[in-house]
Amino acid sequence: MSTRENEEVKEAMLDRRSPTAIRCCKITTEIIVILIVCGILSLGLSVIIWTVYDIIVPPNVTNTTLEPLEAINITTTTIPTTTTKPLACQKRIIGFFDASDAKEITARRVSKLTHVVFAKIPMDYNGELGIETQESEEAFEKFKSTAKSVETDVEVMISIVGKTSYQEIARNSEYTGEFIYSVEKFLKDHQIDGVDLNWERENYPNNINLLKELRIRLNESQLISVTLPAPPNSGATFHVDEILKYADFVNVVSMGYYDTDRTKTAPISPLYPGSDIGKTLNVNATVKEFTEKVKNSEKLNIVIPFFARIWRNIADVVEPGKEIFRKCQNEFSQIPFSKMKEDGWTKHTTSWDKKSMSAYIYDSETQTFLTFENEDSISQKLEFIKDENLGGLWIRFTDMDDDENTLLNSVTKLC
């Protein structure tokens, strides 16, 4: 059979398909096309509808049901609030306020400081903290509001001094718990940044554990400082390296080295020895002893006293050429620098002891002797802080300055 004949046979066979089969094929093709078109239209319409809905009807997030945080049992950590306020100084300038008079707490003074410390919050025999008088309450509220109102970034702290020793609190687990709870609550209730523990008159074998437990309870952003006496004449035993595992810095009571000797006058805070017997009774010797144990001098602050020591009925010098050491017949007293100025002492000629780097006044007519800090002695201490890479200084007490802030202005030259 020829090729032509084969093609005719095939066409004849196709022509014999049933009409039903042909219709089914066409319908299937049409359905597929319709489904494709509808799918495209459906997708486009859904996008348009939801876009318009979101514009007209905003989502109602308040209807979202969340499980309460208490039920989730999450332990949260408070993150310190960031601040745009500038620092008053890159070194620490810590102002302690005795705060017996609220009017002495001024924004002008606070703005020159990096830390302000309200002294002193009483601690009861069982470790509980509390402000006892209406006058103290008013001073404390003035202190807080003033510190938070200044344009510089100031850390606000309290200093605690107890009716009993910290050692007694540390020995009793019940008192320890009450103390730590009370400190934490006080800082939280008053929105205070930290606490200073005054250990000037302590022997501290057990105090380290108390300090450790306090650090564990407080948030890491909250400061802990410890005020320590200057060795070796303090008679206290402590391990400053252990203290600084839990405390952020230590305020050293680098003054009053000759307080136990009532037979002669002496500089209040000598930077260097003023006599052969005072080789260890000075700021330099104290810092050297501390830094040998600490290895991190930036955590140490030396003191700048804002008051004068005054003796009366003064006799001759103890030794020729050492005018700052004179025989005395009675104990000294203490007056604020502001009172010293009011009484006219600043108009007297101020003498300078080159060995101890200390200022003093001796009035031979009234047989009165004063030792105190002035611009020259403070300047020497500021250079010492920089040379020894110390963290800074602390002031006892800032509110003892005069109205012109003479001493505080000298201190701020550290910056």
Total number of distinct structural domains: 2
Q: What is the CATH homologous superfamily assignment of the largest domain?
A: Glycosidases
* First-to-last CA distance: 116 Å
Strand order of the largest sheet: 1-2-3-4-5-6-7-15
The number of strands is 15
What's the CATH class label of the largest domain? Alpha Beta
> In DSSP terms, counting alpha (H) and pi (I) runs of 4 or more, how many helices?
13
Spans with pLDDT under 50 lasting ≥5 residues?
Answer: 2-6, 8-22, 47-81
- Whole-number radius of gyration? 39 Å
* CATH fold call of the largest domain: TIM Barrel
Mean pLDDT: 83
Strand content: 15-25%
Along the chain, the helix and strand elements come as HHHEHEHEHHEHEHEHEEEEEHEEEHEH
Helix content: 25-40%
Structural class: alpha/beta
Query: What would CATH call the architecture of the largest domain?
Result: Alpha-Beta Barrel
Shape: globular
User: Mind summarizing the main beta sheet?
Assistant: 8 strands, parallel, barrel
